[in-house]
Amino acid sequence: MDISVVVPLFNEVESLPELTSWIDRVMEANRFSYEIILIDDGSTDGSWELIEQLCLQNTCIKGIKFRRNYGKSAGLYCGFEQAEGHVVITMDADLQDSPEEIPELYRMITEEKYDMVSGWKKKRYDPIFSKNLPSKFYNWTARRMTGIKLHDFNCGLKAYRKQVVKSIEVYGDMHRYIPVLAKWAGFKRIGEKVVQHQERKFGVTKFGMERFIRGPLDLLSVIFISKFSKRPMHFFGVFGTLMFILGLAAAIWEGSQKIILTLHNQRAPRITESPYFYLALTAMIIGTQLFLAGFLAELNVRNSTDRNSYLIDKRTNV
Ligand code: UDP
Ligand code: MG
């Protein structure tokens, strides 16, 4: 099979007929063998009943229904698990992404040998203040922090070599950072393609203000996990030691002042009168805490079942 199109959806009943027939048209025109995997993320608007009907009309369409709403990442995860196509394409169900992009994305993966190609909604048809501007800032931060030169990390329209989706595990709200997960799994050829974007025709956006809190926090997690998840002590240990040394130095300074003054028979002020004393105390406590956190995290890593799971690219004679 050439292409699996993975579509996570939540209450998108109005868009589905047009979406599936449009994808089908593009696939037929280009003679691709394909499947469309629709993952109903706990819809309550009759999306699933419609999917069952669509599946009867077209056997290339497959449906999975969650019992409740788990989020877009969960949908993608199950779609990736199911996908059999040589190239896997993800797109949103709301018709904001155009199926016309599929042939070119497919070509970039198969001929230009990209591991993954991410869409870039260069001209974007979403509300300026609630979506476009925050998204620009967020993408800039993500670029700086991950070193991946993409303009639109969270674009729903993306294409992957099959091996990529089988090697990464999307969970929580991590659909925003799939390029980071891919890079971290050792897939370095990550490309970008400017894609057409439309205004939402039916329904409403499923991501409200909570994404302003979750997005940045998840970015921090992704970066921390990718750098330190197998060696947490290198993070906590460094900061813990620095803090402790700072505290100790301040304490020694304070103590020696007092001793020197006493040796010269002068009345030394109480040690609790100095701000350095409190700084020293706090720094040493925080330093110890960080160190302990490091040890606990190391223990966790030691006991985790995937402490020795590596993605093997090739083997010979084994
Ligand atoms: N979606 C989903 N589960 C959710 C929220 C969203 O499967 O809990 C799907 C949604 O139906 C759509 C895609 O994820 O197909 C992108 O959502 P949306 O268009 O609302 O996001 P926006 O384009 O506004 O960022
Ligand atoms: Mg949308």
TrEMBL record:
The protein, known as: Glycosyl transferase, group 2 family protein
Keywords attached to this entry: Cell membrane, Glycosyltransferase, Lipopolysaccharide biosynthesis, Membrane, Transferase, Transmembrane, Transmembrane helix
InterPro entries cross-referenced by the UniProt entry: Glyco_trans_2-like, Glycosyltransferase_2, Nucleotide-diphossugar_trans
Transmembrane segment boundaries: 235-256, 276-297
Gene3D superfamilies: Spore Coat Polysaccharide Biosynthesis Protein SpsA, Chain A
Cellular component, GO annotation: plasma membrane
Entry keyword Cell membrane: yes
Gene Ontology annotations of biological process type: lipopolysaccharide biosynthetic process
